[in-house]
Design goal:
Layout (H helix, E strand, L loop, with lengths): L1 H11 L5 E4 L10 E3 L6 E3 L4 E3 L3 H10 L5 E3 L4 E5 L5 E5 L11 H5 L6 H16 L6 H5 L3 H7 L4 H16 L8 H13 L7 E4 L3 H15 L3 E4 L5 E5 L2 E6 L4 E3 L12 H4 L3
Parallel strand pairs: 1-9
Antiparallel strand pairs: 2-3, 4-8, 5-8, 6-7, 10-11, 11-12
Helix pairs in contact: 6-8
Length: about 270
């Protein structure tokens, strides 16, 4: 949704915007489709957001669609293992951040006390570390390597650290950098009481975003061209002058390219 967000922000500044989207709908990977067997609308993966995702919640408010989503007032997440044993991560009613999750963590049945104490030591370290100043060092390590460096067991990595990292960063602790892992815990679990509250759409993702974003852009004087693929960005003397979409060239004073990093080189001159 980076391209949509950029287009909406530019429209707010009275910039004449043309948004290109290769699919017939807006929303990027956050979309829904009709299942061929059941006829039901299904999301492309379960997309949720957290209370700390202030840019996203602000975007929902900008489009006027916050009422079509649900955000927990207080975090409560059951964690069930293969044997059926249930633990619950929840926010304590009276404790401030970063202590608000401590009671439910101490009662968490899937870790022994030794692992809990070691995990608490790592959590304190995460809370105190200045990740920006140490970014280069932290980017050179995976989050798993960093956790093991500070005494986290395989059990703890499996049932605690990966449990929380995977849904937040959409990848495991063995694949994300220590910088990203620490950022996720600082912003999502330690900074504010409501940071980890879980939100989701009450309607299909395409219904939530696509029409609202298109209406916002067009009512602001912009244009949306769906079903058009950008073949390349036209650049001369270091400046972008337009986008070639095959059937025509769309002239532009500036071009915002919101695509996956590996696609970008294919749109630029060699």
């Amino acid at each position: 949704m980076a391209g949509i967000s950029a287009a909406c922000a530019l429209v707010d500044q009275s910039v004449s915007v043309t948004l290109l989207e290769k699919r017939p709908f807006l929303g990027g990977r956050a979309f829904s489709f009709v299942d061929g067997e059941t006829g039901q609308e299904v999301d492309n993966g379960q997309h949720v957001y957290l209370g700390c995702c202030t840019a996203y919640t602000g975007f929902l408010q900008q489009l006027g669609i916050s009422n079509r989503t649900m955000l927990q007032q207080r975090l409560r997440v059951p964690v069930v293992d293969n044997s059926g044993k249930v633990g619950v991560f929840s926010t304590a009613p009276l404790l401030p951040a970063p202590l608000h999750l401590l009671p439910s963590f101490l009662a968490f049945p899937h870790l022994n006390m030794r692992d809990k104490l070691r995990a608490l030591s790592a959590i304190v370290r995460i809370h105190r570390i200045n990740r920006v100043q140490r970014r280069e060092e932290l980017e050179a390590l995976t989050f798993e390597e960093w956790l093991k460096k500070y005494g986290q067991s395989k059990r703890s990595c499996d049932v605690l650290w990966n449990l929380l990292t995977l849904p937040v960063l959409n990848d495991s602790i063995s694949d994300v950098s220590a910088y990203m892992g620490i950022m996720a815990f600082q912003e999502g679990f330690l900074r504010e009481r409501n940071s980890a509250n879980i939100g989701y759409s009450r309607v299909g993702l395409t219904e939530l975003i696509s029409d609202a974003a298109k209406n916002y852009i067009t009512h602001g004087g912009g244009h949306v061209l769906s079903g058009h693929t950008a073949n390349n960005v036209i650049i001369s003397n270091g400046n972008a002058y337009g986008v070639d979409i095959g059937s025509q060239v769309i002239p532009a004073d500036a071009v915002v390219v919101a695509v996956p990093w590996d696609i970008l080189p294919t749109l630029l001159p060699p």
